[in-house]
Known about the structure:
By secondary structure, this protein is an alpha/beta fold. The chain is about 45% helix and about 20% strand.
Amino acid sequence: MKKGWAAVSDFDGTITLRDVGDHLLLYYGFSDKKTIEASYSLKVRVEDFMKRAFAGAGLSERTIAAFVRSRVRTRAGFTAFVRFCGRNKIPFEIASGGIDLYAGPFFKKHGLRVKSFFGRARVVKGGIKITYPFLKRTNLSLFKASRVKRLKRAGHKVVFFGDGPNDLKAAALADRVYAAGRLYRLCRERGIPASPLKDFSRAVSFLRKKRSEPCTR
C-alpha cells in the first residue's frame, strides 16, 4: 500500500546544535577534544564510545537535567516540526546513541513526546552505566538504517536528519536527507543527495508540499 512521508532523525548535533554527550564530557572534564574527535571515525561504534566515556563520569541525574535546561540549544524549528508531523499524521521517530538521562529533560523542557530510541543510563558508583536494549545483535549505524527500511517497507517515503558518520547508512537509504556537519561532508564525498540542515523549517515546507504525494515504487 502506498502511503505518504515519514521521518527519522538522529538527536545529538541534529536536533540539538551540539552533541549533548560530548558537551557534558568536555564541560565536566571527563574527556578531551582529541578523544572525542577520534570517536567520530567510521571505525568506531558510537554505543561503545558512550559506554566507555560515561563509565567514569561522576554525574548525577540532577546535574545532567540542570545542564540540559541551561546549556543545551535546540536547532531552530524542531518544535514546530514535531507538531507539524503530529497534526498531519506523519510518522516521526528518533534513533540515537545518546542517553535517556539527558533526552528526558530535553523533551520535558520543550513539552514534547516523540517515539524515540535512546540508550538506558543509570548512575552507579563512580560513573554512569549505559545499555542499548534496542540494538540486540546489531549496531547503532545499522539500527538507524533499519528504521528507515521499516518505514519504506510499510509504504512510506522517508526523510532522514543526521549529522554524524553513524548516520551514513540511514542517509543512503532515505528518499530525502537533511544533513549537518560530518554527515553532510560524507554525503557529498559519496554522491548521496543531501540538503544542508540549518533548521527544520525547510523540512516542514518540503513535507507540506509533498505530504499528499503517493509513494511510487
